[in-house]
Specification:
Elements lengths: L6 H9 L7 H35 L3 H21 L7 H11 L34 E4 L2 E4 L5 H8 L13 H9 L29 H25 L5 H7 L2 H31 L13 H17 L1 E3 L5 E3 L3 H8 L1 H26 L4 H4 L5 H27 L11 H4 L1 H4 L2
Length: 419
Amino acid sequence: MRKLITAALAATALTAMPVLADKGAVLDTYANIAHAGYGDSLKTAKKLQAAVNAFVANPSAETQQAAKDAWLMARVPYQQTEVYRFGNVIVDEWEGKVNAWPLDEGLLDYTNEAYGGPTDENPLAVLNIVANPMFEISGEKVDATKITAELLSDTLHEAGENEANVATGYHAIEFLLWGQDKSGWDHGAGERSWTDYAAGDACTNGNCDRRGELLTVLTDLLVSDLEWMTAQWADGGDARKAVTMDETAGITAMLTGMGSLSYGETGGERMKLGLMLNDPEEEHDCFSDNTHNSHFFNGVGIRNVYLGEYTRVDGTVVSGASLASLVEAADAGVNAELVTNLKKSVIALGRIKTAAEGGFSYDMMLEPNSEAGAGLINGGVDALVTQTKSIERATAALGLAAIEIEGSDSLDNPKAVFE
């Protein structure tokens, strides 16, 4: 299940050619790809929901693995939608519900001793709602006897205005399925036993019924959130209307999303920062050791937006008028440069993916003094940074104002990372 991209998809991601278009048609393609990507994310989340329900109803090593496999597959389309996050207010304000990271997982369930306890920065870091049906937040009593979507999304998620208190989304589900990854820089993901969900005397670590209830509600909530976002990109949806009503603003949003995901988010916060700190806890999918796929599909998602082509999970292709064609008409040299650099970044991220699937996991790449690991990660970072410069040149070629690209201290002010 680790090889989550077919050779056909890989070839399409690297060789698609731009279709000539006008701005309105380009924005229609952009919205169509968003609708398809979030629709695929919803489709795979529903499969995850079914697998989780089967696991909780009949806990076993086999049903747990099926739920894990479904989670891994659900990440493939979703990671390709992250390019829509920056520049689209509707997406950016919603995204934290489904992909907030990193998280203080002790808010949800038990952790090992090395994890530590509550801190001044986050007094809820080890709240452990699985084990505690009654607790206080900021002096207010909370009755969590029944775990509900409202409890998770309205009361616990980012409680105390702390973004590390993640109580919804993919990564909360990931933690409930895999548990903490205690392998450090060694190869290995979390090793939560299926017996954490078993009934009666077979239950390990207590509160197995509540743990199952939490996992079920988390997955139901993910499906609900993705249903909402998919509708925003359908015909007449607010996100589609927002991006298509003003062509200049819409094209700027496309380039902003590409540049910000390339530079500050993936290249900086998700890759360079973790390498600088040599910290496996900085992995994006740290419990499952799926980070290599997350980075790779972010790169593919950026490519999708520029070339106006997305391969769906069923193998069909959504394509149309492309941003590349607009840049080609304005400056053929800039377009050729950006197409080349998009290809190079997907290849560089693909090298990380291939190495991880071959046994050299992302944890191992982060180990201090690992020249091979640093080389792979820096190769991806450098390609993303170079790609971002080309995105800025494409913006200028189209006669648009400079885009606001998300930054990262790891790239902009490395000394600040250690202050």
